[in-house]
Design a protein that fits this description.
alpha/beta; Rossmann fold; 2 domains; five-stranded parallel sheet; four-stranded parallel sheet; 9 strands; globular
């Protein structure tokens, strides 16, 4: 496997499935409170250019529960690409730590960080993609449906980093993936073309939320304005009118369909409170699985599984 985990398609289908199996095993160990400390004596440096509750808590708690110690480094300590270059940060932190996780704005910075680091680097999110989230998502989907094959996933909203990671996952696992977004907010065209040309999955871009949701097994959404774009929210509200996941939109999907959201959710904008709290919502199972999947990813990269 690659030294780093920067994109879901850094790994082959077999490697993705092996990490998926590992996450199930590790989750059960933690649920059972088994004595299990493969990271005893290890440290994880966590760089946060973008603050996040779930990413910090899931990585910090997960690494601790596997016996290790993590360090939070915010913009006040390390301002990657501004106060200090990514390649300098990579070499310094590699000398002190066994692994680096970074949640950054500029995707080029995570690439440079990994290039110069001598320890594994994990992409905790960039403006381009969010690979750990989509790995947690497939774990959640597998737990719920018992399979990953023959499923339609309808993403409703901004063609953002979540969509890019789903498109890249579509080059590894067969699926029917539809991104329904306003005309002015599509995903990266090159990423879409790569997914399409891989001929592993059926991938589509639509401007019709109800059409996309039709016969879907999973209806997925995210905030309309991600971090760094909050100043665009009022303008985006106009463009995204009709893209809210409502009970009516869920009714267009299969009767057995589930609702997913990577959180945080702005209830009343991209999703209604009724959908978030409905029996179809597996949002909080999805959030919990971030920790278990990230634990598996770290174990695999460290050669401990």
């Amino acid at each position: 496997m690659n030294k780093d985990f920067l994109h879901v398609d850094d790994w082959t289908q077999d490697e993705i499935l092996s990490v998926l199996d590992l996450s199930v095993e590790v989750k059960q160990k933690l649920k059972n409170r088994e004595p299990y400390a493969p990271f005893k004596g290890h440290t994880l440096a966590m760089i946060f250019a973008k603050p996040s509750a779930r990413t910090r808590v899931s990585f910090e708690t997960g690494f601790y529960r596997l016996g290790g110690h993590s360090l939070y480094l915010g913009p006040a300590e390390i301002d990657v690409g501004t106060r200090e270059s990514a390649k300098d940060v990579a070499r310094v932190l590699s000398a002190y730590n066994d692994m680096i996780m970074a949640r950054l704005f500029d995707h080029a910075h995570i690439i440079e960080l990994a290039r110069y680091a001598s320890v594994p680097v994990i992409n905790g999110l960039t403006d381009y993609n969010h690979p750990c989230q989509i790995m947690a998502d497939i774990l959640t989907i597998k737990e719920h449906f018992g399979r990953l094959e023959d499923l339609k996933i309808a993403y409703i909203g901004d063609g953002n980093n979540i969509v890019h990671s789903w498109l890249r996952m579509a080059t590894r696992l067969p699926m029917h993936f539809v991104c329904a977004c306003p005309v002015s907010y599509p995903p990266d065209q090159a990423t879409f073309e790569i997914a399409k040309q891989a001929s592993i999955s059926t991938v589509e871009i639509s401007n019709d939320p109800f059409g996309a949701a039709r016969d879907a097994d999973v209806v997925y959404t995210d905030v309309w304005a991600s971090m760094g774009k909050k100043h665009e929210l009022e303008e985006r509200k106009r463009h995204f009118k009709g893209f809210t996941v409502t009970p009516q939109l869920m009714a267009a999907s299969r009767p057995t369909a589930v609702f997913m959201h990577c959180l945080p959710a702005q209830r009343g904008l991209e999703v209604t409170d009724e959908v978030m709290e409905s029996p179809a919502s597996i949002v909080f199972q999805q959030a919990e699985n971030r920790m278990h999947m990230q634990n598996a990813i770290m174990l695999k990269l460290a050669g401990k599984a």
